Target: Catalase
Amino acid sequence: MTDERKDNKTKKDRQLDHFRVDDKGKKLTTNQGLKISNDQFSLKAGERGPTLMEDFHFREKMTHFDHERIPERVVHARGFAAHGEFELYESMQPFTRAKFLQDVSLKTPVFVRFSTVVGSRGSADTVRDVRGFATKFYTDEGNFDLVGNNIPVFFIQDGIKFPDMVHAIKPEPHNEIPQASSAHDTFWDFVANNQETAHMVMWLMSDRAIPRSFRMMEGFGVHTFRFVNEQGKAFFVKFHWKPTLGNHSLIWDEAHELAGRDPDFHRRDLWEAIENGYYPEFELGVQIINEDDEFAFDFDILDATKIWPEEDVPVKIIGKMTLNRNVDNVFAETEQVAFHPGHVVPGIDFTNDPLLQARLFSYTDTQLIRLGGPNFHEIPINKPVCPFHNNQRDGFHRQTINVGKVSYHKNSLAGNTPSEASVAEGGYQHYQEKVEGRKVQARSESFTDHFSQATLFWNSMSDTEKKHILDAFLFELGKVKSKSIRQQVVDMFAHVDLDLAVAIAEGIGVKPPQTGGSNITKASPALSQINTTYSSLSRTVAVIVTEGFNDTELEYVLSSLKASGMQPEIISENLGTITGQRGTQLEVDHTHLTADSVSFDAVYMVRGSDKNKKFNKDIAYFIDEAFSHYKPIGATNEGIPWIEINKFDGKPGVVTAQDMNTFVQKFNEAITKHRHWDREIV
Ligand code: HDE
Model:
């Protein structure tokens, strides 16, 4: 346990204390507790002789090492997690009996794991992909897992197709290429031949699939769940997470470059934000539909390829989650956490969404192989914070020592305990939905419209977003070797938007479709990221400065940026300290070799005395790249010539000023805007 850990711990944090071990300052021992006198040399028959079997310490050490790895998740293998707390703004009592959604005085501990879907555990963070957004609420009534994504719809409607979909998008089996990418033949073959994918593919091609940060993306429960209140009345509900920093993305070139320069970009961003006290916050929203209105929409509300447009069914914000603590150990917590959409509490129930139904089977099943047996609920990160009692026994790695001889129900020897709880005592009761029908392998007619909402999404995009979507199609399909698949995809997306399909066709060398188009003219402004929240809080600024800088100016700007909640980092020719005209010493954080423009939200040019020609050249590239990524660039006095060399002065989002007050204000505004799309890039 680290010394600086605060006292105001959550219930979960206190529980984890019992499992934390700090080896610092201790003697080295075997796992049996035997002190080790020599950990350098194995036991040998003679100094140059063979190692002996009886060297139990060597064997234990090596065997444990040989078994350190567990299977990575079959999807969502690469992830990063943090602890936090959820607080409720207003009681949801009219809709649900769930206590953590009723009592505004409660703070519920949470653990959130963000992930990519397709790549292996060691793949890059910034690839084009869906992001997982899984939250475990440790409530007093048991764990509730909201296992969502950052995209509100899914590729398929029925879970039976999930293995096919995942096989198609994962690296191709004959050569295991490409890693963490959908830009290959099998994925697009799947898309063209399973056209329910159309809507989700539009999202995947959009900027949503390359988020700027886990802290700046939305989360969605995707499925329609059910709320059930104390009177037993049910409501359909969809869950949303809204980041308070707004919903922002990278651009493709930047994401691509980051994948090489800093494959850990998103995990580093989350880790550092929490370490630096910029705690990520997400508001929880719910869309609620009365049971009577189940059929009031022009889509089926049980179809996971559909959204409920926010303008038609408003998102009610009911609480906020704050992530305020990094993990102590990634394997123990992030890797071993086991989420399951079937982990619910009284007041939250399922619907007949066939995708959700399949997930209810898959998640326990996968943990059995990944975590090695049925006792994964005993792993510290998975343990509920409330007591749990039942007659389940034994199995690999059982930790609990269940005393007594009774492990069955009903019994008289233990007074028939553990006993069932009535609903009044908090017992879970499945919602008694009336269901009737023939056993059929079929899909409801109401699930057959695959294109209307794909068009709705397209219609809702700004021109910039539309261009990014087109570029993404051109990139992805440009990587598809089969001309037939390219043609099939173009013909398919002609049903979404004819102009889009024609533009794709032109770029990828297939016939432009003659027919298609859509009569959907509706748009949903909430879908465009242009309409999100904007904030400069926690934005990173590369401050480029050399020896002999203007102390007064730099001190003023740095303190103003920090006061506005931004994170400036100093980049210079060498590590160490640099000295200003008045003698101020400044510690350098990076050189241009260790930092790239893609790692920052903005650039501030300060300069100093110009001695190093090579550095100047490298910096010209740095600014050029930041400019081409539409990022804010600021320069004061001596830094201005650096901007002029590249002819960027006067361009949108490029702020230059002699007066520091004006500069700081305008630069802050430029950073808050995130990107300057009105800039012309040639
Ligand atoms: Fe998952 N999914 N999924 N999924 N999923 C898994 O469970 C599965 C789906 C999601 O950070 C696996 O523990 C099926 C939708 C997240 O640990 C596995 C179907 C959504 C995570 C599995 C879906 C998700 C997973 C792999 C279609 C958004 C990572 C490892 C019926 C609502 C959780 C594991 C973490 C992980 C199955 C579709 C989200 C195999 C069968 C839709 C965020 O059980």
Observations:
- The domain at 79-382 is CATH 2.40.180.10 (Catalase HpII,  Chain A, domain 1).
- The first strand starts at residue 79 and ends at 88.
